[in-house]
Amino acid sequence: MSRLSKNQRKILEILEIKPEMTTREIAEVVFGKLVEYKTKEYNSIYRSLVSLERKGLVQRVHVQLRWRRKVPSGEKASE
Q1: Residues 6 or more apart from 56 whose CB is under 8 A from it?
Q2: CATH class of the structural domain 6-69
Q3: Residue ranges of domains in the chain
């Protein structure tokens, strides 16, 4: 696996505990404060999520832009 940034590692840890979250919810956990849509914090987390998606580590869920960890083939997803 290619190298992950600090934010990317934190995002994966968060999604391990709570499997589905919005970009905003993830940003609020990472930064420890309320985060509004289209702020620098929101955009930072969104970019990290898109990068993780390209690496096959997370996937988008529904239209509300929820994210979850991607389960490798052959493994069962935890609910």
Answers
A1: 70
A2: mainly alpha
A3: 6-69
